[in-house]
Write a structure and sequence with these properties.
The chain has a single domain, classed as Type I PLP-dependent aspartate aminotransferase-like (Major domain) (Aspartate Aminotransferase, domain 2), CATH 3.40.640. Helices cover about 35% and strands about 15% of the residues. The chain contains eight helices and nine strands. The strands form two sheets. Strands 1-9-8-7-4-2-3 form a seven-stranded mixed sheet, sandwiched between helices. It starts with a strand and ends with a helix. The model has no long low-confidence stretch (mean pLDDT about 95). The structure holds pyridoxal-5'-phosphate. Pyridoxal-5'-phosphate binds next to α1. The site of pyridoxal-5'-phosphate has 16 residues, from α1.
């Protein structure tokens, strides 16, 4: 990853991810890209953009009239309910990738900004990890269509799955990633969005800086606490 944008909450990090993804394509001259694909039974935050991405039906319900209509949901990766009798994990992953591919085709691949998922779904589904091969298969569908592969690691990242980032277990780096919670260890309100070199380079080459911002962001006290917490992770080999 190439650059980190520090925010005060996970929801703010998701909003930043939504906006930088759109700006990435505007700078590339691909104005038609307006759609996001996300998953049911997911949670990406409480603010309206992040809630629209989320697939948490109860939390969405009262606000449906306010949610962006250019966000489209596919099923989560949930073998407990979805694995068919006799179906292997590999066949299951192929089926999931085909569902994503179909959604791209339905929307028009040239209109899709990206796909967002939690590698391990947190509260919205109950600690449900991805099936081996899933992240790579979903990333490959995104990249085949020039779209972004975005991972929400707010709940599952920062060491909670045995590697600093959950995606590192399969070495499937995203184009954009969010992180939080363990970043501040509960001591300071801090979360972050990270972008890959591909995204950063395009923004740097473009006409504009990132058209986004809060009065308070990248706050030094929060950053100092987060840095100290990461040092403790390393010194005490907590991960
Ligand atoms: C996966 C995931 N994304 C986003 C969020 C939103 O983060 P915050 O509550 O800090 O706004 C959460 C919060 O639980 C989460 O679990």
């Amino acid at each position: 990853m190439a650059r980190v944008y520090l925010t005060g909450s996970g929801s703010e990090a998701t909003e930043a991810a939504i906006k930088i993804s759109r700006q990435f394509f505007l700078e590339k001259g691909q104005q038609k890209r307006v759609n996001f694909i996300s998953r049911w039974e997911s949670y990406h935050g409480t603010t309206l953009g992040a809630l629209a991405l989320s697939g948490h039906r109860v939390r969405r319900a009262p606000y449906i009239p306010f949610l962006m209509e250019n966000i489209h949901h596919i099923s989560p990766c949930y073998t407990y309910r979805q694995l068919k009798a006799g179906e292997s994990n590999a066949a299951f992953v192929t089926r999931k990738a085909a569902e994503l591919e179909n959604k791209f085709q339905e929307l028009g691949p040239e209109t899709v900004i990206g796909f967002i998922a939690e590698p391990v779904v947190g509260a919205a589904l109950g600690c449900v990890p991805y099936v081996p091969g899933y992240l790579k298969a979903m990333r490959d569908v995104c990249h085949k269509h020039g779209a972004l592969f975005i991972l929400d690691e707010l709940m599952c990242g920062m060491g909670r799955t045995g590697s600093l980032h959950a995606w590192q277990a399969e070495d499937v780096a995203p184009d954009i990633q969010t992180m939080g919670k363990g970043l501040g260890g509960g001591y300071q309100p801090i979360a972050a969005m990270m972008v890959s070199h591909v995204v950063l380079d395009q923004i740097m080459k473009g006409k504009n800086e990132f058209i986004h911002g809060h009065t308070y962001e990248g706050m030094p006290v929060q950053a100092a606490a987060a840095l100290e917490i990461q040092k403790i992770f390393q010194d005490e080999n907590l991960i």
